[in-house]
Amino acid sequence: MSNFVVTDLDGPILVVAPHPDDETLGCGGLIALATEAGIEIHTLFVTDGSASHPASQNYPPDVMADIRAAEAEQALQRLGAENQPRSFLKLRDGRMPFPGKDGYRHAVDVVAELVSASRFKTVVVPWRRDPHTDHRISWRIATDAVRRNEMQVTLLEYQIWLEENGQADDWPGEGEVDDASLDISEVVDRKHHALEAHRSQLGLVVDDDPSGFSLSSQTIARLVGQTESYWVTRWPAQ
Ligand SMILES: [Zn+2]
Predict the structure, then answer these.
(1) How many Å apart are CA 61 and CA 65, to the nearest integer?
(2) CA of 135 to the centre of ligand 1 (A)
(3) What is the pLDDT of residue 89?
(4) What is the phi-psi region of residue 234: left when phi exceeds 0, alpha when psi lies from -120 to 50, beta otherwise?
(5) How far is the first Cα of the chain from the last one, in angstroms, to the nearest whole number?
């Protein structure tokens, strides 16, 4: 495992979060440290996060989407990144278009335009085989957008659900990626505080869907610690 510091990364940086909360769980430390170092870091929220409590009557999808966007804004603020750029693609949570299906091309068009305008040097995405369909399609959209621009970037991949739900062949193959670890001890309190902004994902908002999603203390302990782990490649490979 090689260690890196945030100033080893070339900016501007794009962070791709499939759902509001992935930015904090996966790379909240990196966002805080990059901001502190004066590196531009743009967070792209891909889905609207509206599917976390599907049985709720009091919090239908449109209401959930608004709540989760507000939580995302607050999390960025708590990471110190309130003045950093962000955008919301607002794809339907859990119903993202697969490559080749209606809507996929449009999603790549929008992200490709953002990549073209901002000329990101580093792109931070969920792990390509993270065992959640929205995470895998988010990876695909972001990397297709980079390819469309005929750019080459440093790709950092963070895993969210791999350790809990992954199959053996979801893990990186031999030589597929390099391990990299970022010490975030200086900002880990901010990362904790930012995660607490995602109240709806901590069982603190929706009161009429007991089967709805809630982050477990085990997941939080695994993802919010003194370091953040990434897998690094150049994308596209040459
Ligand atoms: Zn997610």
Answers:
(1) 6
(2) 6
(3) 97
(4) beta
(5) 23
Mean pLDDT of 79-95: 97
Q: How far is the CA of 21 from the centre of ligand 1 (A)?
A: 7
Q: Looking at domain 2-235, which CATH architecture does it have?
A: 3-Layer(aba) Sandwich (3.40)
Compute, in angstroms, the gap from residue 20 CA to the centroid of ligand 1.
Answer: 7
46 CA distance to ligand 1 middle (Å): 10
* Contact between 156 and 142 (Cβ < 8 Å): no
Compute the distance from residue 4 Cα to the ligand 1 centre, in Å: 25
Q: Across the chain, what does the average pLDDT equal?
A: 97
What residue spans define the domains of the chain? Answer: 2-235
Whole-model pTM: value is 0.97
CA of 49 to the centre of ligand 1 (A): 8
With a cut of 80, say whether residue 1 has pLDDT above it.
no
pLDDT of 227 above 80:
yes
The pLDDT of residue 10: 97
CA of 19 to the centre of ligand 1 (A): 5
- Nearest one of 199, 188, 198 to 223, comparing CA atoms: 188
Task: Describe the strand order of the beta sheet including 86-91 as a list of residue ranges.
Answer: 2-4, 178-183, 227-235, 153-158, 122-126, 13-17, 41-47, 86-91
How far apart are alpha carbons 39 and 106 in whole angstroms? 29
